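S1.2 Input.
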Amino acid sequence: MSPLPGLFVSHGAPTLVVGASPAKAFLQQIGARLGRPRAILVASAHWETGLPRIGGAPRPATMHDLCAATRGLHRCSYGVPGDPALARRVADLLGAAGMAASVDPDRGLDVGAWTPLLLMYPAADVPVVPLSIQPALGAAHHLALGRALRPLLDEGVLVVGSGSATHNVLAQHGRAEDAPAPEWVTRFQDWLAARLAAGDVAAVLDARCHGPAGRENHPTAEHLLPLYVALGAAGEGATAERLHRSHTHGVLAMDAYAFTPASGTPALAA
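S1.3 Output.
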């Protein structure tokens, strides 16, 4: 049996779950295409820590850090079970790779975690474990973190990075949800897809500095870092497939990628 891919998804705004959009439609069908994993480990752009932290709650709460003030969304709940044993397994894998990781027994699921997963697996019957990111440690750290998790793909665990292919929230203000994407967004978005398809990991790691309009598309790094976790989890020589391309508010690219280990068979491209 081929290992699971590493998966990167762009989660957009929390209103993704109540509106209608190409990205929502994509997320609603990708879970069925992937099949039901044993568990999900999700690295979210909305959980930032100095060192890696893993959520070990048996029943993680649904957090509303960005959407409590948005009408109706404070009532959204994603009542999945957690997996404390998997949280400890993740901590052990990271520790073996020389990373000082710890388990948070109370951490819930933030909007970067539950927003895409609620659409992908609405039955809420797949255990979910959240994983933090460390913006101060950079892109290469997150690639290495992902590579330390490579055994999980053979164990039936879906490793998901949840961020955004582009993420300039200041430029988003005043743009309609269906606004066309400006050229500086599409140019970076398609550069990233081309570099990933070419296996040019060095260029991708330096995307904010050397990608076209890299700093404009990612003024801060946190929404790009989960991509490196998902890419790293597939191991060296992974094959990248862009599964989805769309935009919301013009400047938020909603792209999704599957990273298939070299020993696996790509099977998810649309």
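S1.4 Remarks. The chain is about 35% helix and 20% strand.
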